[in-house]
Amino acid sequence: MNAAPAQAQAAPNAPRAHLVIEPVRGWTGGIFNEAWEYRELLYFLVWRDLKVRYKQTAIGAAWAVLQPLLAALLFTVVFSRFAGVPSDGLPYPLFAYAGLLPWQLFSYALTESTNSVVTHQQLIKKIFFPRIFLPLTPVLAALVDFAVAGAVLAVLLAVFKVGVTWKVVVLPLAVALAVLAAFSVAVWLAAANVKYRDVRYAVPFLAQVWFFATPIVYPSSLIPEHLRALWALNPMASVVDIFRWALLGSAPPPLAALGASLAAVLLLLAAGLRFFRSVEATIADLV
Phi, psi (5° rounding) for residue 20? Predict the structure, then answer.
């Protein structure tokens, strides 16, 4: 008769089952399988990013239009009127805005993705989800601003009486290259910022240097011939040239330059995903 109470007393001391959640091993198939499984969460993270960004602002998403538009007007005065920078025979405001449009997408993703992991440290410590979503969210959110600012570009084309041709079908490919370029750099910066907080202070300087290394305020025709091969490694240079060729009829980027840009992005993305995967296991401890 004492057997049952004895078992009851032993039960609390019995080992308890624990559920341990670990990231999928490997960085190729595993990281993409996780992203697909939690794809609905990515949608909500992007929506949350947009809501937080424009919360308690007076003009809301209009900032996505004002920033490149005011910058294009400023560049027209400084670089076109004062410095006499050529624009390949195109109206300079349209020339500058067409370059600023994809750059704004890239620049926002670059700066916001850097702090994405550190900013969400409380969320990381509470629940499991694919950490790769954190640097990816600002990149996808930037596409919304890009679409809003793109509507203004359509108005500018009408104002300057520039007709749209069949070349516009190439624009989605240019946008995809810009997104890949932004994400490939964002993965590196987000992971590096977890280990070294100095990264976030270096990013504004990096963005500024990258801006002037991209033909936004000047045409690619000004690049010396002996620097063209090195210039092709900058994917945003090819993106800007494609935009101007597709919309404004300027000279297209050489196919060799496009190939070099794409190869640089894919190589940087593959190495960045591997680096992020190596840091991922210790993110919760480092942040």
Answer: -110, 120
> What does pTM read for this prediction?
0.84
151, 137 Cβ separation under 8 angstroms? no
Instruction: Please give the Cα distance from 85 to 65 (Å, whole number).
Output: 24
Residue 25, phi-psi category: left (phi > 0), alpha (psi -120 to 50), beta (remainder): beta
Calpha distance 264→100 (Å, rounded): 22
| Residue partners of 285: CB distance under 8 A and separation at least 6 | none
- Per DSSP, the three-state class of 17 is coil
Helix segments in the chain, DSSP class H: 3-10, 29-37, 39-54, 63-75, 92-114, 116-119, 121-126, 133-159, 171-195, 199-212, 228-231, 235-248, 255-280, 283-286
d(CA 37, CA 134): 15
pLDDT, tens digit (0-9, with 9 covering 90-100), for 130-184: 888 989 999 999 998 899 899 889 999 999 998 888 999 999 999 999 999 999 9
